[in-house]
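Dear U.,

For the methods section draft, I wanted the exact inputs and outputs in one place so we can describe them consistently. I've listed the two proteins in the order they'll appear in the manuscript figures. Please don't edit the token lines directly; just add comments below if something needs changing.

First protein:
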Amino acid sequence: MASTLSHSAVFAAGLLIGVGSILYSNQRPSNHSAHHSHPDKQINTIPVNSASSQQPPFQHQHFFSAPEGLTAPSHSSSLKEILKFGNPGPISDFFAREAYAVGYDRRTRNPAWTAEHLTGSNLKSSDGDDKPDRSHSTFHEDTSIPSQFRAKLSDYFRSGYDRGHMVPAADAKRSQSAMNQTFLLSNIAPQVGEGFNRDYWAHLEGFVRQLTNSFQDVYVFTLPMYLPKQDPVTKKHIVSYEVIGNPPNVAVPTHFAKVVFATGGKYDSGGKGVIGSFVLPNDKISNDQPLTSFEVPVEAVERSTGLTLLPESVKANPVRLCSTVQCDSILKTLSQITYNKPKKSSK
């Protein structure tokens, strides 16, 4: 894609100075303009300064519990009376799976974030009767989410988008049940198929797994993102994204982030760990595009998503992942490999 390099350069510069002034103003590539402006597709537009409703990882609040930290006021009204019908939120649900954790966003019907801990040992397939087989896994709705807030299989039918894994099935080979859990729609977001989900994004996932050959522990966050671009007429920065389904329910992220913190091993000489943080547009990307062109500070991802991914002690004077391993050459090599796995489809 000819414009991807300019997109990533402008985007990275904008993230450095905050969400409110991101200069990602280029239009989507012409080869996708018809696809993203289909008259039957719904577009949801919100101001860029909308308050984030997402919660930091591992700080989940049960649905009908009282807001944490609040006590009953001394006035005639009590908290019990005010919240007679229960706490209306949160709109994020926390789930601990066998191979990952996920925060689910009820508003977008996508994960707000997923988190993994990869090692050389837990990426190996189990043996015996429980040896996982991807062909035995099927996409399925997450019944632990109330029906009115969950993504449904019908939302993706003929949508033009793939059901894109945030935690890939290949990261959950420890058992068949662990792999099956990656096919829950609470771990899925709409992704452009050819040129992204089935290509560049898959190569990035493979690159992250390969890091376990060089590091003892690899912590991975994957996040759908909804980033602003500048309106050419008003010059205002607006977040605009497509919504699929009938009725329209599932938001189509404009970008996806992959944040990696790797420790131990031969490349962690200082013992502090290394950080790699990448934001990619949800669009076709040429396999010749350097991964480093999508590199941004992890603080920029946190600021854009309203999430705290890593503690300040880790982010202070970070060592760049791509300064220790050859990110671009490894990814390019992976892009030349034919992946022996079923093609993901939007159906």
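Second protein (the one for the lower panel):
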Amino acid sequence: MFDLIRASALQGFPECVRELDGDPDRLLAGAGIALDLIADGEAYIPFHTHAALLAHAADALDCADFGLRLSTHRGIEILGPVALAGRHARTVKEGFEALARYVHAFNPSTRISVSPLRTDEVRYEQSIPADLAAPAQVTELALATGVQAARALIGEHFRPLRVSLPHAQVSPPARYREFFDANVAFGQTHCSFDFHSDDLARALRGSDALVREVTTHLLESPDYASPQTPETALRAIIAQSLATGHCTLVGLAEALHVHPRTLQRHLAAENLSFEHVLADVRRDRARHYLENTTMPLADLSALLGYSEQSSFTRACRAWFGVPPRSVRQAASQVT
């Protein structure tokens, strides 16, 4: 129901679409995603929205290998601090273990494992829960990112021994061979690539113990906890939807690809109210913007999803007992 992925997963999307003579703003707007959200390292979007956007882009641009192309517009850095944890491990094996341990901070819906296949081979496998729709573009993009991670850890010379994809072939065989530089099997029970187990023992050049320690501490802090409880996930979705004009129960149900009544039942089962969570998110965001920015109140109220500044003012009085300007003035006096 509340499966999410960081909005930064779409880094490179505008550039890839423009390269194909498409309009990224239009495609993103059609999915209810603001362009500036992609640069927000704290924002999440529903996984279904991400998957549907990639599938629609592939169709609209007549580009069957869109997922693979998109992967070339960004590197392992797309994973943020998760990439740092991998790059600054002591060995390739520990690097993959770090990626597997912390990938939830980037995409809570994904699981990564590296396990022995036979005496001299191991398998990198990426999985998405079975109840989530994972079209070919999402799956190919995810595995391509995994191959990029292997090249970042092992070296640019890395090439898989073989690649397995769970869906039917959507691009010409030559395209897959060109990208993965390996034989690709389709319709498999797993999404994976295999490589030599000897590579796991390699020491990582440039590994920095201090960076490793700081990054590990960050990724294990509450700020990077996976937003997978219903309430924290709902808060994340509401926060990224406030300024889009779609932050209603119906709008969120559409983003999650469920009927509004179904969403209501799920919330009721968790003793949650959409209206209550919406008010909490707005209050927390309002306090942050008022105390930490000089943003004009008209812009701030629009950012919080209010059509009229007067509505925001009334809400501030209800939350803080004073109008917005007073909240800002009090904060400036403290600092």
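Candidate sentences for the figure legend, describing the second protein: Strands lie at 4-6, 44-46, 111-118, 121-127, 162-164, 183-185, 192-196. The radius of gyration is 22 Å.

Thanks,
Y.
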